[in-house]
Amino acid sequence: EKAVNLKKDLAEMQEWMTQAEEEYLEKDFEYKSPEELENAVEEMKRAKEDVLQKEVRVKILKDNIKMLAAKVPSSGQDLATELNVVLENYQLLCNRIRGKCHTLEEVWSCWIELLQYLDLETAWLNNLEEKVQMTENLPDKLDAVNDALESLESVLRHPADNRTQIRELGQTLIDGGILDDIISEKLEAFNARYEELSHLAVSRQITLEQQLQTMRETDHMLQVLQENLGELDRQLTSYLTDRIDAFQMPQEAQ
Fold it and tell me: Which residue windows are coiled coil (predicted)?
């Protein structure tokens, strides 16, 4: 009777493993939304816990069959053979579910990381847009133009590492058919805004550099003219002080 019960337990265990494999490993999942992906991750975590909890039951079966084999070798031998099959299948199921759970967790982590990089780069784009807007309607003063140019150049020195991460993470998920529509839409919007703003910023940078150069040249010319006028004023003053007749002065002084 004990052998019959153990045989029944082995059959039930095998049936449960077959059902678990069908439910958790043979489903054709499509992750088209973050909610679907997150639900799949949680489901696989529960599946892993469920399967690992059966380890106690498997151990009890193993111990009982060993005890029976010691008492009744003929019955125990047949059960031991069935037990080995169940143990192999159980270990395979555990490994496959662990693997799928790990893969889904990695995919979810990849998605979250992509969102974080997009948030960082979006904040940078917002800052860049603000700096570009600040270059509009500047006072016609050298310091104001110089400060605006330096501020814009500082933002433009932003490294490209984050954009590289966005491209690689997004492509990895899209290649795996994970959230491909959503990610493609996000990347398209981000890249379009990046191209537009970066081109506008570089164009404004060139304009400011040219404006600054012109203002510096003008400022230098005014300075030279001011110095010349000052020297001329000193010469004229000395002529007047010495009561020199105008016709005795050099032509340029007249």
Answer: 3-64, 208-242
C-alpha closest to that of 178 among 31, 79, 61:
31
In this prediction the pTM is 0.78
Q: How many beta carbons lie within 10 A of that of residue 233, not counting itself?
A: 10
Q: How many angstroms separate the first and last alpha carbons of the chain?
A: 137
The pLDDT of residue 198 is: 94
Residue-wise DSSP of 38-55: HHHHHHHHHHHHHHHHHH
Q: Which domains does the chain have, with CATH numbers?
A: 1-211 (1.20.58.60)
CA R_g for the chain: 40
Residue 70 has pLDDT above 80, yes or no: no
Residues contacting 3, CB < 8 A, separation 6+:
68, 72, 75, 76, 79
Chain centroid, CA 5 distance in Å: 56
Longest dimension (CA), the chain: 144
Both tokens of residue 147?
Answer: 């400060």
d(CA 120, CA 127): 11
| Residue 224 in tokens | 């030279």
Query: For residues 205 and 156, is the Cβ–Cβ distance under 8 A?
Result: yes
- The contacts of residue 151 (CB under 8 Å, 6+ apart) are 131, 134
